[in-house]
Amino acid sequence: SGILMDKDTGEALKVHGLPVVSETTFIPEESSGTVDMPFTFDGTGLDGTCIVVFETLQIGSITVASHEDLDDGEQTIYIPEIGTEAVDAMTEEHVALSVETVTIRDTVAYKNLQPGETYTVSGVLMDKETGKELLADGEPVTAGAEFTPDSPSGTVELFFTFDGLELAGKAVVAYETVCYEEQEVAVHADITDEGQTVYIPEIATTALDAGTKEHLSKATEKVTIVDTVVYKNLAPGREYTVVGTLMDKETGKAIEADGEAVTSRVAFTPAEPDGSVEITFSFDGSALAGQAVVAFEEIYLNGKKVAVHADLEDENQTVYIPKIGTTALDADTKSHESAADKNVTIVDTVVYKNLIPGKKYTVTGTLMDKKTGKELMVSGKTVTAKKSFKPEKADGSVEVRFSFDGSGLSGKSVVAFESLAYGDVEIAAHQDLNDK
What we know:
The protein is mainly beta. The chain has strands spanning 2-6, 14-15, 18-19, 21-22, 50-59, 62-67, 76-78, 81-88, 102-111, 119-127, 135-136, 139-140, 142-147, 154-162, 171-180, 183-188, 197-199, 202-209, 223-232, 240-248, 256-257, 260-261, 263-268, 275-283, 292-301, 304-309, 318-320, 323-330, 344-353, 361-369, 377-378, 381-382, 384-389, 396-404, 414-422, 425-430.
């Protein structure tokens, strides 16, 4: 008869609360020989356990021999256990940048292997979301290594190298199997194990002017753009830094204010893998009329870049800064001269650049007295004109018409001032008394 013992505790091994025992009855034909005694039990959850078999030989009820030695290697069965830590080789973290060549280093810690024997460890990357094998270029991502341990416990490394350009937004989990003489002796396959998981973040952004709440800003000394960065698959509980840079859409170079690139950075610690964070750009944009700026973003963990969103063609990342210029002509003379008549009509053609097509805008004009620099007064009222329009293209023109009694204006020069608004917010103005 035999009983299985736990080598670590020196107590009987219990499965489902009961000791594991076995008994075989035999009649020997010779005084020396062998007999097999099988133990069959549920080994689930016994990873890392070292089992020692104790045996007793009886004739009837009388014990005539026993073999009970916790240190006897011949009586011992090892049930190996493995645990893993998968990190990106570049970041040394559970976060990888979506690039053409990603390498994940998987450190497999083993326990209860037999020293001096040769084992193989193989791994495959799994898609955390689907629970299926991760495919890169249509093939599973695998790795393998052969090793001979010097002691029962130790580590061995696997390296998974694959094209990660199309994998932004995914989380991958490393599954590992250890085999001895082609027989599986240990497995670590847990889709929820954070130690086995590497996140490949994905970010998308929406940049809006703080005043218009749209992709439209006015060229003023103080422009504020709020960039909302939506992230997916960051490792929670770690401090990240998001760094933003404003780029000139036309040149592809960084926008500069006071000789410095316009940048912003914010540190944050996500509680969940998915979420959002805001960064704010405040800068002097008075010289940027007619330009479009695009927000580029990068996310860093411990100084290592883990996510990038840099697309000059992304409309969500883009803020347009409109520009207007005007030509005011008399409706009758088609020139910059009007007769001092009772019915004068001035047609002001407003040329715009960098509007968002399909949005509703309003252009408002006011006539100014060039000599005084004040609003022109006719019959005690200012002379204004207004027109709303929806452009089909970003660049174009629209006309506003001033009609007034000019009979008392002989000898005067009038200048048309214009303001372009989106909703209630002015986004462009042209107000130059010296503009011919």
